[in-house]
């Protein structure tokens, strides 16, 4: 399981292996999983730092209030989504990946890779999230959409699309990663378990394939 290309990929730590065993119907104490992995010399991938910031606040934009207040919990799907995007260095230049994550299930419901970071990048990820939920017959009206104060998320175009979908915008303070900590966690896992594990990539197309996998 730990080295399975479709499961652990050599990245799972004891907690993820324990959860995967439970999903497969094996009731094994977590301490036993930790002990067996330790004795076998198996360990999960460790996340590093994030030395580059993609947030560029628009000082003139009117920002919605922070409706989350660092409480990243939801009682049902489509109650709270968190969004963010990050950079990825490729051989042909810098690329960017945007995510939309449902807080209830921690599922990435929308994502998009691009060679630049215009408003269209996170907007495409949002469109994918809306399409994913619509395809499964789920109503997203009233979902709280929480982001940082980046200019892409405070743009008129992005705000209008949220309003059209019936989503409620929520934005944390400028320069404070804790206000969007869950989205930052998703980005950290992505960089550790995909970018650093499968890269380096030749360009955006290769990055997109790796992200899809």
Tell me what you see in this structure.
The chain has 213 residues and is of the alpha/beta class. It has two domains: 1-44, no CATH class; 80-212, Nucleotidyltransferase, domain 5. It has helices spanning 14-23, 30-40, 120-135, 151-154, 156-165, 181-198, 204-212, and strands at residues 80-90, 93-102, 107-114, 144-147, 168-171. Strands 3-2-1-4-5 form a five-stranded mixed beta sheet, sandwiched between helices. Strand 2 (93-102) and strand 3 (107-114) form a beta hairpin. Helix 1 crosses helix 2 (30-40). The chain is globular, with a radius of gyration of 18 Å.
From the structure above, extract its key features.
alpha/beta; five-stranded mixed beta sheet; 2 domains; globular; Nucleotidyltransferase, domain 5
* Strand composition percent: 15-25%
Shape label: globular
CATH class of the largest domain: Alpha Beta
Total domain modules: 2
According to DSSP, the number of beta strands is: 5
CATH superfamily of the largest domain: Ribonuclease H-like superfamily/Ribonuclease H
Oligomer state equals single chain
Assign the CATH topology of the largest domain. Nucleotidyltransferase, domain 5
Mean pLDDT equals: 86
- Under the CATH scheme, the architecture of the largest domain is 2-Layer Sandwich
Largest sheet: 5 strands, mixed
The total of helices stands at 7
N-end to C-end Cα span: 17 Å
């Amino acid at each position: 399981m730990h080295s399975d290309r479709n499961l652990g990929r050599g990245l799972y730590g004891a907690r993820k292996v324990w959860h995967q065993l439970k999903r497969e119907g094996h009731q094994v104490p977590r301490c036993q999983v930790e002990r067996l992995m330790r004795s076998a010399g198996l360990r999960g991938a460790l996340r590093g730092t994030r030395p580059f910031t993609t947030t560029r606040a628009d000082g003139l934009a009117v920002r919605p209030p922070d409706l989350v207040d660092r409480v990243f919990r939801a009682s049902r799907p489509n109650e709270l989504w968190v969004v963010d995007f990050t950079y990825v260095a490729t051989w042909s230049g810098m690329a960017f990946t945007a995510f939309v994550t449902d807080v209830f299930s921690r599922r990435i419901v929308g994502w998009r890779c691009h060679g630049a970071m215009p408003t269209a990048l996170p907007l495409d990820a949002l469109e994918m999230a809306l399409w994913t939920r619509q395809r499964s017959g789920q109503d997203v009206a009233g979902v709280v959409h929480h982001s940082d104060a980046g200019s892409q998320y405070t743009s008129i175009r992005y705000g209008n699309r949220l309003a059209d979908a019936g989503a409620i915008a929520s934005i944390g303070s400028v320069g404070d990663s804790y206000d969007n900590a869950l989205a930052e966690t998703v980005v950290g896992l992505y960089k550790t378990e995909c970018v650093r594990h499968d890269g380096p990539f030749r360009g955006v197309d290769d990055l997109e394939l790796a992200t899809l996998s």
